[in-house]
Amino acid sequence: MITRRKLLKAGAATGLAYGFGGLAAPAIAQGAKIKLGYVSPQTGPLASFGESDAYNIASFLATEAGKNFEIIVKDSQSNPNRAADVAKELILSDEINLMLVASTPENTNPVATTCEAEGIPCISTKAPWQPWFIGQQGNPGDPQSWKPFDFAYHYFWGLEDVVAVFTNMWAQLDTNKKVGGLFPNDADGNAWGDPNVGLKPGLAQAGFELLDPGRYQNLTDDFTAQVNAFKDGQCDIITGVVIPPDFTTFWNQAKQQGFNPKAVTVAKAILFPQSVETLGPAGHNLSSEVWWSAQHPFKSSLTGQSAGELAADFTDKTGRPWTQPIGFIHSLFEMATNVMGRVDDVTDAEAVAAAIASSKVDTIVGRVEWNGQGVPPFAAKNVTKTPLVGGQWRRKDDGTFDLVIVDNKTAPNIPTAGTMEALA
Description:
Belongs to the leucine-binding protein family. This protein is α/β, with parallel strands linked by helices. The chain is 32% helix and 17% strand.
């Protein structure tokens, strides 16, 4: 198979005089810019994850380091097949030097898989590591067949972390420890709902019983079967990994059908203020994982901004409240700058991949270093973890919401601002 990487070997570029903050100057054609590909769900049901992209990209290009880069953005339209197609366009037509991708396995996985097949280095984030790593394997159900990647590298948290965060939050409440699960038929849902490597074993170990009524299709308009299953199972708690429009449908129908659990803690769906604002009073005290906030104690290696300063700058420039993806998308450009500043030839894909693997970067989301810490041996080469805490949405008098961190046992350096409250 002739890949882009093999073709590049015949046309190595020649030197130049750019340097990044004292790092080694990369060698590309004189006056050329380093090409970054970026695949994002700009439209479709995952568009909330890409809301800060325009801000992040403009901010990066305005930095001194950013002047050395060209960023080519493609919209995946929240569709895995489209994500794979545009990734291939970026590699073959746009001839990028490095791929960046984020925003759920539906977006990260097809892009990373395409990069691996074409021999192009890829850095990804904003997807739990199990659906990212296992979901790309030829046989996800056979751990013996799983293989590491040569060009795809990922940083984020894992299902073990979300289990710890969720159960720590629930332990603050008086419940019967019966948990109903909402798991769609997609990469995330199949990973989270897997009885062997998903939430179930970890919840059981923490003393919680998971009721899984089975998979449903994304963008369904009727959750009656799930609501009835949870009512019959006397579930005090609801969890899952749900796209935003589906959670709105589920929660509205649950309330209409008289189902009132004590806690609803779901991933993906209620990460964003606009997602809970659409629910009105019914959004009060919904809870979720928190992977980044204005209170996180980290600084950008690119701009020196604190998390709070970055969040405030976003609000100042856009007029919108900060959201969790801001920090992680910013960190992708921190990683690109650091990695490309440590290679002699940015067109040498193996050298770029090696530079990614040897990264030790203190970013706006924490330390990114592929050292195997806290990750099983099979994923240690390609996965490094970032911290996770738990938060709850509190509705204010004006109808807007604040995300309050209520549990930090998994990352004590990230401060809490309250304790868990039961749903009314």
